[in-house]
Amino acid sequence: MFNTHFAYIFAASISRMSSKVKIKPDASTEEKIKAAARKLFTQKGFAATKTRDIANEAGINLALLNYYFRSKEKLFEIIMLENLGHFFQGIQLIVNDESTGFYKKIQLLVDFYITRLIENPDVPLFIMNEARNNPKNLPLQFNLMDSYFMKQFMKEIKKGRIKKMPPGHLVINILGLTIFPFAARPMMQKIRNINDEEFFALMLERKKLVPDWIKAMLEAKK
Q: Which of 87, 79, 84 is nearest to 58 (CA)?
């Protein structure tokens, strides 16, 4: 009787202790889940990607995915913010490189924007949503207006080689011509009746066209 009662108490104590023990986070599992989600979000988009698809791609069960990231929305947010961090780092390297000229930087920026957006086509909509709802979350690590690129822009104006204009217009023109088509992708594809492959081919053409358009807008009248 005593032994049975003692065994019951001991087992109950172990059960209570076990319920308080949390699974230790595994960095390799987290990275595996994020890699799988990044791949599927890129291939299928946020809406068409299911958490079960991500779990299968990562080779884990759905419960484990939910333990690490709670929801598809949270996982998407984490991945997009990481992508944005790398995105802004790449831009910073381009605009502060003192070895490249002004127009070369425009060409590099356009190429960089379009290449990265083809890899992550959901980024523009995510940025607009975060900028409206959670602007403090955006990993803005530098001020473009203080960059070497802007110093070159002002120097070109001073020498009379380009039209005088507020630098903000230059930034808006670059962003508008490269990012807006991705933000409006569903509408554009429907209007032109093209699929994803055809849309991305169109964007690749813009790598060569957009720098020429911007240069034509900037050149001073003779």
A: 79
